[in-house]
Amino acid sequence: MSRFFSSKYAALEAYVPGEQPSDMSRYVKLNTNESPFPPSPKALEYAAANTRSLNLYSDPQSQLLTQAVAKTYGVDPDMVLVTNGSDEILNFAFMAFTDKKNPALFADITYGFYPVFAQLNDSPYETIPLRDDFSLCVDDYIGKKGTVFIANPNAPTGVALEVSEIERLVKSDPDRIVVVDEAYVDFGARSCVALTRKYRNLLVCQTFSKSRSFAGGRLGYGIGDPAIIADLNTIKYSTNPYNVNSMTSAMGIGILEDEEYTRTNCLKIIENRNYTVDALKRLGFTVLPSCANFIFVSSDSIEGGELYRRLKEKGVLVRHFTKERISNWCRVSIGSRESMEIFIEKVMEILKA
Length: 353
Fold this sequence. Notes:
The chain has two domains: 17-38 and 260-352, Aspartate Aminotransferase, domain 1; 41-257, Type I PLP-dependent aspartate aminotransferase-like (Major domain) (Aspartate Aminotransferase, domain 2). Helix content is 36%, strand content 14%. It has helices at 41-50, 63-73, 85-97, 113-120, 163-172, 226-239, 246-256, 259-282, 304-313, 337-352; strands at residues 28-29, 80-83, 104-107, 125-128, 147-151, 178-181, 202-207, 220-224, 286-287, 294-298, 316-317, 319-320, 329-333. Helix 1 (41-50) packs antiparallel against helix 7 and helix 8 (259-282) runs parallel beside helix 10. The longest helix has 24 residues, at 259-282.
């Protein structure tokens, strides 16, 4: 830290992303929940057609992409804001809807960026423990003051809440906003987007990174009441009005026009997830019920950190978290069938050693 760094950020604990080794050819990479499939061919076609306009600024309103998202979900365009990844709209939500009088509320085991966004924006926050089985109980949030942030399915656990439970939470207090982060919803959970037409205090965030094979494109979006979206646009135009570049925007439209490709890939991931879960359970692992493109696993035979290190030595990357409550668990992204077969093979080698 230099002597010029602002004291207001001195205690900031930055988000730690998953490993991205430069020598990726050495590893089966199952640590960052990326898709094993390339983006839609239509997206690549649209990207190539868009290169001639890169000398010009992108459309700050991202009108064509916004309309495409709205059409996909059956909402009005003024209910949509597209952003540079879903992380950007989550940060916008912390900026717009949390402050010293309105703290952020989120689970103790959830997406690691939530406490970072709270600290970054000097917003107080309260972490609410998940239950012993790592499920989230909305009753723990009802009656508390503050903006609620829920990852559904949750990360890193993969456990999903029923839409009816989230609706009960949203309905319980119309005077506070509930933000539902649906980064992984396409792998077996149900979306809350339909509720945004019914409730004015709900913001649903999604991403193109996971199910739509576009993590490197950095594209996300939020859907909510027009007044909420207007608030978030105020933040956007005060920070980065050209937040989605024109090539990414064009590719996003191509991806949305090829939903069958996305659905097919999601089904393959679900199939590979089921295969991996069955294999791990036969090896004595505990695996939480997942509606995501990853699973959360532990074993009485080997500690989580040791499993992570031994797998890395054998050329397989998974994610291990050092937080005490989950230090014995590893998060394993679901990749191609070949990748999952290699993962299971290496786990078996480790357990036999």
